[in-house]
Design brief:
Elements lengths: L19 E3 L6 E8 L9 E7 L3 E2 L3 E3 L3 E12 L4 E3 L3 E4 L4 E2 L1 E3 L3 E7 L3 E3 L43
Antiparallel strand pairs: 1-2, 2-3, 3-11, 4-10, 5-9, 5-12, 6-7, 6-8, 6-10, 6-11
Length: 161
C-alpha cells in the first residue's frame, strides 16, 4: 500500500529542492535563493534552505533571537573573516550582527528563532569585505515588539516547499 501524505510533515531533499529568489529582507537578492520549509512571517521563525551563488553576499542584519545553521556544501565567510565549511553546525547568539558571503557558492540549512532585522547603514559592523548595500525599502517593522524585524508579511505570501 502506498504511503499517504502527512500534512504535519514537510520533507525536502536539499539536493533536489526547488529554490526561488531570496527576499526575506524585502528587496529580492539575485545572488541568494531559498527553499522555505517552515518559515512563518508572523513569528519570524522557521527552517529554510539558503543557497549563495558564487560571490553572493547577505544584507547586514541583527538576530533578535538565536540563528542556527548547518553548512551543507561549499564555504561561507562572515564579515569578521570567520569561515564556515561543509559540515559545520553553527549557533549565533541573540543580538549578533553580521553579514555573510560565499566566494565559491554554498548551501545551508538555517533555523531562525524570533526574527531578525536589517541594519541601517550606520549600524553595519566592520568587515574584511564590503557589505551588500542597505536600502530603507528592505525593512519591515515587527508589530508585537516595535522592533524592526524582517519579515515577508508586507503583502506577499511566504512560499511553502
Amino acid at each position: 500500500m502506498p504511503k499517504q501524505p502527512n500534512k504535519q510533515r514537510t520533507k525536502v531533499n536539499w539536493k533536489e529542492a526547488k529554490f526561488t529568489t531570496y527576499s526575506l529582507q524585502g528587496e529580492p537578492q539575485r545572488d541568494l535563493t531559498w527553499c522555505n520549509l517552515s518559515w512563518d512571517d508572523a513569528t519570524g521563525s522557521g527552517l529554510f534552505l539558503i543557497r549563495f551563488a558564487p560571490g553572493g553576499i547577505s544584507i547586514p542584519h541583527e538576530h533578535l533571537a538565536r540563528e542556527e545553521f548547518v553548512v551543507l556544501e561549499g564555504e561561507l565567510e562572515d564579515n569578521d573573516g570567520h569561515i564556515y565549511r561543509a559540515g559545520d553546525c553553527v549557533s549565533l547568539a541573540p543580538g549578533s550582527r553580521h553579514f555573510t558571503r560565499s566566494r565559491t557558492g554554498a548551501t545551508s540549512a538555517v533555523f531562525v528563532h524570533g526574527g531578525f532585522r536589517t541594519l541601517d547603514a550606520g549600524e553595519v559592523p566592520a568587515g574584511v569585505f564590503a557589505a551588500a548595500p542597505v536600502k530603507p525599502a528592505r525593512k519591515a517593522r515587527a508589530a508585537a515588539t516595535g522592533a524592526k524585524r524582517t519579515s515577508r508579511a508586507n503583502g506577499r505570501k511566504s512560499a511553502k516547499a
